[in-house]
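Moderator note: this is an archived Q&A kept for reference. The question asked for a predicted structure of one protein chain; the sequence and the answer are reproduced below.
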Amino acid sequence: MVFTCSLPHYWKYSEQNESEEEFTKRMGEDLENLIQKEGADTIAGFLPSQ
C-alpha cells in the first residue's frame, strides 16, 4: 500500500505570506500526522515524488 503526503516544495506549494520556517513546520506536521494515522509500523520507506 502506498500513502502520499504533502509535497515539500516551498516555491510551488507554500501558502500566501508563509515563511520557509512556517512551511517547513507545516510539512513536518503533515508527515507526522500521516505516520500517526497509518501507524509507524506500516512505514517502510520514503520515495521522492516526481
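Archived answer notes: The radius of gyration is 12 Å.
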